[in-house]
Design a protein that fits this description.
With 223 residues, this protein is α/β, with parallel strands linked by helices. The protein has a single domain, classed as Rossmann fold (3-Layer(aba) Sandwich). Helices cover 35% and strands 29% of the residues. The chain has helices at 44-51, 74-84, 100-110, 115-128, 144-156, 174-189, 201-204; strands spanning 2-13, 16-28, 33-37, 59-64, 67-68, 85-88, 162-166, 193-197, 209-214, 217-222. It has a 6-stranded mixed β-sheet with strand order 6-7-8-3-9-10, sandwiched between helices. Strands 2-1-4-5 form a 4-stranded antiparallel β-sheet, covered by helices on one side. A hairpin with a 2-residue loop joins β1 and β2 (16-28). α3 packs across α4 (115-128) and α5 (144-156) packs parallel to α6. The relative contact order is 0.20.
Length: 223
Amino acid sequence: MIKLVDITKYYSTGYVKTFALRNIDLEVKEGEFVTIMGPSGAGKSTLLYILGMLDSPSSGEYYFHDKKVHILTEKQLTELHKNHIGFVFQSYHLIDDLTVYENLETPLLYKKVKGSERKGKVADMLDRFRIVAKKDLFPNQLSGGQQQKVAVARAVITEPRLILADEPTGNLNTKEGEEIMELFKELNEHGTTILQVTHSEKNASYSRRIINLLDGWIVDEDK
């Protein structure tokens, strides 16, 4: 599904290059659940954003289902991301002035899904994530766990082949965090490929592979 070849990312300030990722080689098969771990500044989020096509590498090759991502235009990248990838952020990234229902509907509007089908898909998500009673509330009326549930539901509603999660339980209490991880486990069991960045050993235990980053390098991998 995913193949990275010699991916490097650096930022230039004057004559100084600051490296976020160095010579990353990585393959992820369809249906895997992979965790990326490492200390702050190791390059975890940078790697996730490149995988999610929200950032571009400085050099190297990225293949997504044999498509050469590294040579695609901005428009082509947006289409590929929109059609195949769901992103879950630590800080939820819900739209404050939209209700739960409207937040869930938004990605379907971008994909030009017809009204009756949109209604059915949103109803399914509200039911599946047990947030039917919250559908008319705004994000600031929800707890952190409820907001993250909505964020996961929004990422899943377009039935993406890949979900990328950046510290998805970082702002949640233990019980809320466990609920989110159980949702990811269930999605993975139904065939969704998941890559998560986390500091949590407990969250990492839900995955089948752990990739450890340090100073932008992959230093080891646990299977």
